[in-house]
Amino acid sequence: MKMTNDPVGAAIQDFMAGNLEASIVVESNLTEDDEIRVAYLFRTPDGMPELELLALEACRGRVLDVGAGAGCHSLVLQERGADVTALDLSAGAVQAMQAQGVRQVVQQDIFKLSGERYDTLLLLMNGIGIAGDLEGLERFLEHAKTLLNPGGQILLESSDILYMFEEEDGSVLLDLNAGYYGEVMYNMRYKEHQTGEFRWLFIDPAILEDYATDHGYTFGQVYEGEFGNYLARLVLQPA
């Protein structure tokens, strides 16, 4: 199967074929180009940060692993006996997960997913970024209600990136006409593949709590990291 515009999937396939040094180039409007080593997408629990281990422990019931990538979190949950479905839009990632033995894999856009109900939606590696912007966050929170069983939860990782706008004197320089500072433009490249520009959301916990409460969820912060990253639990309240 020939993949086009699937840098993550193509890189994952190359890694599985033996290119252990494969890296995905990440361009943004905020920082210099960065790289994601594909090997990291295949990490085992020994290589997972504390935040991810806590998130996996907190999963309950039917789990939807959103943006599952190479499937490392789904595999851990599956090995623990969880009823987990791995969801990703990348054809290459889906093929890789199936090849590794992830039993339930769906290639789909989360916003187009319907017809199934889960007890946990899991969004790691800044997974809530798929919302794109604050308007998209509202859309996601409403759509998630159609995917969650009563009392279901969203476990999500995000980051407050305000520190990236700090000056040397400790002041913060923001362009108030540019919208919310956590809305970042990205492009991902691997060989001839690239996503094209897309918007990715980093949401600070105080604003996330406001949005979650407005849309019928309770908010809890499970973990806070050293660099603004955190794990939140949103629990859907009865209508």
Automatic annotation (TrEMBL):
Transmembrane segments: none annotated. Residues 63-152 form the Methyltransferase domain. The lineage of its organism: Bacteria, Pseudomonadati, Bacteroidota, Cytophagia, Cytophagales. The keyword Transferase applies. This is Methyltransferase domain-containing protein. It comes from the Bacteria. CDD domains: AdoMet_MTases (cd02440). InterPro entries: Methyltransf_25 (IPR041698), SAM-dependent_MTases_sf (IPR029063). Gene3D superfamilies: Vaccinia Virus protein VP39.
